[in-house]
Amino acid sequence: MPFTAEFADELARIVGHQHLRLGPGELAPYSRDATPLFSAEPDAVVFPGDAEEVSAVLKLATEHSVPVVPRGAGSNLCAGTVPVDGGVVLVLTRLNRILEISDGELLARVEPGVTTNTLSEAAEKRGLRYVPDPGSRMVSTVGGNIATCAGGLRGLKYGVTRNYVLGLEAVLPTGEIIRTGGRLWKDVAGYDLTRLLTGSEGTLAVLTEATVALVPAPSGGGTGVAYFTSLEAACGAVAAIIESGVLPATLEFLDRKCVRAVEEFARLGLRTDAGALLLFGDDGPAEAVAENIDRIGKACVAEGALEVTLADDITSAEALLAARRCSLPALSRLGSLTILEDATVPRPRLAEMVGRIDDIAERHELRIATFGHAGDGNLHPTCVLDPGDTGAVERAHKAFGEIFTAAIELGGTITGEHGVGAAKLPYLLDRLGPEQVALLRRIKAAFDPASILNPGKLGS
Amino acid sequence: MPFTAEFADELARIVGHQHLRLGPGELAPYSRDATPLFSAEPDAVVFPGDAEEVSAVLKLATEHSVPVVPRGAGSNLCAGTVPVDGGVVLVLTRLNRILEISDGELLARVEPGVTTNTLSEAAEKRGLRYVPDPGSRMVSTVGGNIATCAGGLRGLKYGVTRNYVLGLEAVLPTGEIIRTGGRLWKDVAGYDLTRLLTGSEGTLAVLTEATVALVPAPSGGGTGVAYFTSLEAACGAVAAIIESGVLPATLEFLDRKCVRAVEEFARLGLRTDAGALLLFGDDGPAEAVAENIDRIGKACVAEGALEVTLADDITSAEALLAARRCSLPALSRLGSLTILEDATVPRPRLAEMVGRIDDIAERHELRIATFGHAGDGNLHPTCVLDPGDTGAVERAHKAFGEIFTAAIELGGTITGEHGVGAAKLPYLLDRLGPEQVALLRRIKAAFDPASILNPGKLGS
What we know:
The structure is a homodimer of 460-residue chains. Chain A has 460 residues and is α+β, with helices and mostly antiparallel strands. In chain A, 37% of the residues lie in helices and 20% in strands.
């Protein structure tokens, strides 16, 4: 059944008129997320106030076969929250409370709409840390981060979001409210639904509460930067660092094109003659950090670094980190359309992968620069272009298709931390094969018999 | 269709006569695992040599609706590998090669039948560590550990098996061979099948290869032991340690009854006047470890420890750890039947839970002592009795039912690291509720339409 006026009345009865949007001007902002070139208008937007309202909306939608697309801040980069089949966008930002932070149990219980940064700051005030730190953390929500299993800069040493989710409250598309896991570090009673929902991109259930693990905040930290003549040399240093027995908390790279763009944008005093910049950092007890930073610096020198700079204090560390944080805005200003991807390869294939990306860019006459997480092989090839240039947009689509194929050929994947969404669904078959895609669909059906939850995405 | 002679012939054609067992004397060892009181004879035992043979066996079994129970070393403690409905036990111990250890990528690729200790030692020789260290690691296999998401002593600081599985090769009950994840620290292309299979207790697919993460071996370590007048006092120290910002690699406890049993058994010089023993350890860079061990020791003293001893060297550290390792054998010799459980509660409820266990034991006139992982609230209440005393066996079953109920009441779970198996399936509904149990069954059906894989366990 399509969306009807009666259906809208039912929605209003559930969430209240003030939490329902139906007017075209009100719907437009929810027709897109942070992914360029994807847009589709929903029929309604609802802002439920608790799990019971979410349950009532989903039950109604299942009865009437109306699509429901859960959404947090809408900072998704793979069109994971674009309502490609219309229907209802279910926005969880009213559920934005930190319900509890327990020092004794090292955990927080939060509603899904709280931003990751809010949670991080609240933990920090208690001497604790919420580890996941995706680049979007100032705006993105904990629920959205869990739905995409967000990564960030600390993946190699600390793991990603899934490692920090202890328990979830979730509403199934048929309306049942379930609680998975809990406040426990060890719990193997049943299939691991906590992890299955983490990274399921809002296609299996709607998260209404999360219990996440915190860790004691590290007492010290250190940061440094090294320039290399080439990305190959930088990757040699990465291998040497890891083989020396150090797992740095941060190990980020910028390719030649990124370094130049950042320097032109932010005038940080970066060496624009360098072929690559490596940013490294560690945290923990002060002596251990100092020793690790020293070992990393020496490994860079031994691998032919042009220059190595260690930050003396927090201020200079922040200045070094600025180069990485500026990468995306610095590149974005070079064109009015920015496509940011996150193909990932095994760490030793990183330089080779960036070489392939450069070849692909050149062949398609595109400007693609790459930065990313050298520690875990997670690359962010970033294409800047003019959306009016339809030829370039078409070439960019082709180029990214070739980039995903290359990543798979090198033993990698089409997405390390952003998700599949609508944008990368066409490439999923190449990554997983037909047997696994068929299995994903059967799992999807086990949760969502009417296929109402975020259709056109994972599991479709 | 029941198991027939023709079916046996087909099995022989697939794995070869020399890898098929059909005689009663040959089947008996596979009628039980390490769980007391559970036993059921299979119709056949097969030892496949590769994933293709596993696939052929499963396809055949699905066609003929014959149960297949995957098995590693058979050290399971919840009857997870007992063939309760007969059929074929599929033993994976021939698949016991370490295929690769990569220093550069910090990973190992192994077949499922390799023992965890073999992998650990191979990693150690390369200066690396495979972190999961379940108590069974000398005999249990990596495949079995993944199938149960095995825990161990390092859970709080390092997490459990699931945190170290990067990728799996698995055979679906319908015969398809799939590969989940890979060599990547970040990969969100698709639902997290790697984690869904981890802990699925051989009910969704048969694992035929695993890629696991390794970490650099810590350069130093330290160990200490503290005695307290009561378990409450010991738990107070645990809280103080964690609130001081230390996450110890090891934090184990023995209750009064365990301390006495261990001392009577092993004459280690333990203080038998103590109400509880706390064993603590940390690893990492030497200075940081020394500082942490010192802070832990001081926290114990501040919380009223009777005595704190720090190990000076590896030998004395091993001597301290012996107390924990001896707990199970020391208790087992007190009766000819030992039932070891692993109810788990949030860390602050640990002393309360042990108190409840003591009350339950007294009420049922049973000898139940408890040791376990204080850091993650994972208890191992251990009941020793005489199997000929049918009254006591019945009372023990009742007592463990009450223990599981108590754990759930305190916000805990029926199993922290051993699994559900056949032994705890009756309690799963209380832990998860009917909606979640129904969902597990639908997930099971998505993998195993003919319900042939390890029936009578998780998902049944």
